[in-house]
Design goal:
One of its GO terms (cellular component) is cytosol. With about 230 residues, this protein is of the alpha/beta class. It has 2 domains: about 5-125 and about 210-229, Rossmann fold, CATH 3.40.50.1360; about 135-205, 2-Layer Sandwich (Alpha-Beta Plaits), CATH 3.30.70. It has helices at about 5-15, 30-45, 60-65, 105-110, 145-150, 190-200; strands at about 25, 50-55, 80-85, 90, 95, 115-120, 135-140, 160, 180-185, 205, 210, 215-220, 225-229. The protein has a 6-stranded mixed sheet. The protein is globular, with a radius of gyration of 17 Å. The chain binds ribulose-5-phosphate. Ribulose-5-phosphate binds next to α2 and α4. Ribulose-5-phosphate binds near residues 28, 87, 103 and 107.
Amino acid sequence: MNTEEMKKLVAKEALKYIEDDMIVGLGTGSTTAYFIKMLGKMIMNEELFDVYGLPTSYQARILALESGVPVVSLDEVDAIDIAVDGADEVDPHLNLIKGRGAALTMEKIIEYRAGTFLVLVDGSKLVEYLGQKMPVPIEVIPAAWRVIKEELEVFNATAELRMGVKKDGPVVTDNGNFILDAKFERIEDPLDLEIELNNIPGVVENGIFADIADIVLVGTKEGVKKLER
Ligand SMILES: O=C(CO)[C@H](O)[C@H](O)COP(=O)(O)O
């Protein structure tokens, strides 16, 4: 089984958590994209009723609308039943690094408030400690990017301003901000670092999601493995 097949497998498994009348936070990225398309099919086939998606990004919103998932915005809902999203790293305590897709701020706003936060990954995302493979994306106010990059040296982190691929200059997030990708040596206390980074003036949000995930579904060659906190 290749990585794409594993992503599809966990996306299919995630559908089992969706019931009629639910508000579902829709994550960003390639794994969640499979989930959104499959959810749309179920809604279109009348296998699910009165399910609304709450997108975490323009990517999720556009895909949901194309796939037949009706969308709502955060200020229209009283509660979020479940949120489904991918991750870039998952440690043994189910702390996460997210934000490769630069959607971390809206993802955290929605996933923090969801009744259940369900994470979908393939086995390559499991790490012994956060920061093992991936930098921590930090969304910053554009005017402050250079000073924050320097201030991150206090944490022994080296940060790079994320540059666009099909765009000249820096990536601009859905909220109009920049992203610094900060490589830390080893993140010993994710919750502490998450709070400390958000205390730097000019930081909007960072990609450490400590103590938020409830369930992680891991796609492996042997099938789906469920990890729970
Ligand atoms: O945090 C994210 C976007 O901001 C994604 O959920 C994360 O990067 C995982 O993406 P993929 O499923 O494509 O590997």
